[in-house]
Amino acid sequence: MAAPDHQLFTALLNKNVNAMRLAIEDGANVNLIRGDGTSLLWVALAQIHCEECAILLVDAGCRKYKERMRDVPFFIQILSDYILLHNINPVREFLDNFIHHLLNTLTPAELKVRDSTGLTPYMYAVRLPMPEELKEEIRIRTGALATNKNIYGRTSNNYKKIKERERAAGGKRRKTRRNRRNRRSRSRR
Question: Rounded distance, CA 11 to CA 185, Å?
Fold first, then answer.
């Protein structure tokens, strides 16, 4: 790790935003990936729970979250970890504000993305326990249409209906024919 990178990482661990700014001005790499495959942004959110640090990293150009998800667009990486982050009490308090900040900071090209299965950020959002206003803002900012389909032909409305059915069933997923078939073939082995 180069000196400014080490200074940035140390400042991040100490939640020292001013020292982070100085390290970034000295040329520290905000997209640095640690040996375990996580980025400085992941450390700020999931490990030290510092909203100010996370916002500073994003504003400085950080667009890396987890190395193992490098083929997944940045905004979708954050949304896919929403449940994990939402279950961390200190993060729950600022996570929606952070998502809102991302919507205001990222370019339209960074927001209007799809993952490898064709899911849009809005398709992720309708499944998440986030406020409806934030879901609506994601829909508007990402230009999602109710007719957008993933590679399986599902739209965001399909995902909304699935989520509503799960809520009505007490959070349990509906058993599909495929699931029943898989269980039967496993029991025959």
Answer: 54
Apex 37 CA angle, 34 and 40, nearest 5: 50
Q: What is the pLDDT of residues 97-149, one digit of tens each?
A: 999 999 999 999 999 999 998 989 999 998 888 899 999 999 999 988 777 88
Whole-angstrom distance, CA of residue 169 vs CA of residue 162: 11
59 in the same domain as 76? no
Q: Is residue 189 part of a domain?
A: no
Is 178 part of any domain? no
As beta bridge partners, residue 39 has: 33
Is 12 inside a domain boundary?
yes
- Kindly state whether residue 1 falls inside one of the protein's structural domains: yes
pTM: 0.79
pLDDT of residue 90: 86
What tokens does 129 get?
Answer: 């326990």
CA distance 36 to 47: 13
